[in-house]
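Q: My labmate handed me this sequence with no annotations at all. I'd like to see what the chain might look like in three dimensions before we decide whether it's worth expressing. Could you predict it?
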Amino acid sequence: MEREIIKTLDGSTTIHLKEWNECYHSKHGAIQEAKHVFIKNGLSLFEDNPVSILEIGFGTGLNAFITFLEANQKNQIINYTGVEAYPVNADEVLSMNYVSELEANQFEEIFKKMHECDWNQKNEISPNYSLTKRKQFFDEIDDFEIFDLIYFDAFGYRVQPELWSTEIFQKMYNSLKPNGVLVTYAARGVVKRSMIEVGFTVEKLAGPPGKREMFRAVK
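A: Here is what I predict for the chain of 219 residues:
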């Protein structure tokens, strides 16, 4: 599938899949979307407590890196697991401008380390941030009550509806601890129904720039 690096409206880059006309992040602003959906409406709920996070779609590493920056600023302990079936290649990673756009040049080596560290094992990225990258299909996830927070950042329902099925959300529900939270940029009725069917309590929130609404689900 042909891929190209494009600049989104907030100046940050993303990967565009031409065949699907689908991007890894919002064309309206990759960084803005990540901060709004996953930090403001997800991580911020846990304040200064240690947090175990599962990301569905590790992709470019943007969400993992922004989470590192937030945790570093607040001295928060993060145990981060990113699941990705098709890892982004090194050339694409080097084309991402997240370090400069986030004014985080002092952490450029951290961003590289996130992509260069070994898959399928726990890596200490910093004293308070560990990263496990799992090369895995989403339907293979079988964790049970391990995570406090899920960043659900799969490709959109339009191109991969199977990733938004009741079966997948049952795995997400099982993976979360009681009172755990799942946040996603999505706001389709069919997605909400699948979440509710497996037991989630779902609320609709204001979406990031360019998107009216998003979902947050609680176990």
